Batch of 2 targets.
Target 1
Amino acid sequence: MSEPTARPRPVYVVCAEAPPDVVGGLGRYAERMMAAMRQLGTPVEVFGATARHGAPRTERIGDVTLHRVRTPGGDRAGGGTRTPAALLRVARVIGVLVFNVRVAARILRAGAGPSGSVVAVHDWMGCVAGILCRVLARTPVVFHVHTRELNAAPSRRRSAVASGIAALETAQARMARLIVVPSAGMRDELAASGWPADRLRVIPHGFEDPELSRLAALTGDERDRLREAVRRRYLPGGGGRLVVFAGRLSPHKGVRTLVRAAPLIAGDRDDVRIVLVGAQAPRTGENAEVARLIDETGVGRHVVAGYRFLSSAEVFAHFLAADVCAFPSTYEPFGLVAIEAMALARPVVVGPGYSPEVVGDGAIRCERDSPEELAGALLRCLDDPPAASRLGGRGAAHVRERYTWARTAELTLAAYAELAR
């Protein structure tokens, strides 16, 4: 019998968005990975930013210890404010820098060095800590890149903040011993932009969530009752056809394309409702922009936007209630929300931003950011329920064969171990 693979002791993880400040995909990733790593025998020290006063500063979860680092500007609730968006972005960047310096100081005081320990940084929000640990203590650094959405539209003029973030990411990529990405599409994109191809490693995310697993195991009658309860919120008597989108209302998520597709989807069908589950990115005016577009296109009767984030349980219940789920992103390095809907055997339509291997043949993938193409794909599902059901079955099989948080955690720790030898 071969000896078990040696693992670094300890691992220091810098992930600015961590529980309880979970807003986007990065926070959900951190939440799931901490649970998956809790009993794998490797001490993992996670440092997350928070502006909250109530949460414990340190929390132990098996082998994982979460340190919540108080950070100015760390409140990502977003909310009403009259401060200009540009100043808010700058304030957030300053807060992230303060967080990084504090975390780097704590890691260096803990004795991180060139052997036996690894620093794992997530997205640009951990780069400064990673660079400091690499330069000051020669600690091996793994750079996890989940998204580069601020630089996803090369035709758009970059702000000074976006350009600075891009430079920071590039510097971290050059110093990192390993760069971990969630999909082959993102690997190829980064390699094409000049990042070191020999250090890019694809480790897909998982999909399991306790509530998702509970809903997936419901009996037919229980599932029907839950579907009916959600559908009655949007459809008179629960009858009709329901399209569900979930995510931030940011432009690259494709929600504007979905609103523009609504007249083509609804047409003269009075029984169609398109529900937008989600809200704006913090400190933006995206809620108002989407509301204005709904008004301008005259689809208010068919498009329902709540402009708020729901709990995971509520989001999954909406997926179950939907006749088809739509995630028309123009940029999506992995797209956990679509994977979760597929895991529930729901028919799913995704945008051109999804890497083809992520969804395989388990979803309809639009080739272009086009309201017409999106409407056509959604109508294929709405107008042919048996075909939509078969698509949902293929999606569930695809997800369950390829993705699991346990496998993601094992592969991630094995990658760290390579650097600690």
Note: The radius of gyration is 22 Å.
Target 2
Amino acid sequence: MRAVATCLSRYAKAGDSIVVGFSGGLDSTVLLHAANCVAKDTALAISALHVHHGLHSNADEWADSCARACQELSVPLTVLRVAVPRNTGEGIEAAARHVRHKALAEQPIRWILLAHHADDQAETVLHNLLRGAGVRGAAGMPESRGRVLRPLLGLTRNELLAYARAHRVVWIEDGSNADRRYTRNFLRHEVLPLLASRFPKAGEQLAGAAGRFGEAATLLDDLAFLDLGANPPAFPLPLSLFRDLPEARARNLLRTMLAWHDVQAPDERRLTEFVRQLRMSRNDRHPRVDLACYSLWCEGGKLCFKRPD
């Protein structure tokens, strides 16, 4: 409750509306319980949103369980049924996460609360590093981004479990969370425990490093703003920007622009080669990158960007 109250005190004011992303699992159930207690004391209007992906045979049962939990707390619940695309090229986990976050972002609510905790942060940092992500990926998840707040990032799963037991909170156990075929589950159940057996504070150190990488990412964003000059932070961008900058800053500018458009940069080898082509190619050449989520190409002396229809 202190973690939630402290986070909300930094951003929300009396009368603001908050919605909790509520899956019914341990993390979001603890967050909903704690946020509901805090909301009563701070005049915040609280509700919950359950995104029904329809990917699991128990999806209807989980939605019903969430409805019962919210009824017991007298918290209004919205159950939103969504379709998860399977041809995005990023895997079903990532596709479901994007659909879920989009559904939350479309809610007409002042603040969105998500239940990520310190163990999730450690998994995210490790996962991103192993995928070859740079500073931004190593920064993991921030406490706040736009309307999204993550009040539990400073707490471990064991602390959430202790809270749930102390307050007799009932939650759903999703059997798929134990399936090691999913990357995050493999990291959670195989890799991080192994690391912790040699480095007892591995999770804590990874989560702490995320904050320092986050500071570095902010500085790189500031540098990208400077390098844009008088140009707005939007595509298309003049190719002269990339040609006039040192190569490292040209790469940083492109990474940052893609992050501002909420898409992931190509892997480092492909990004480096594409930026090299931007800087070296003549006007009659048209370097291009096509990924599942977007395309980048040169046209009329400018770098263009488009998502698929």
Note: The mean pLDDT is 89.
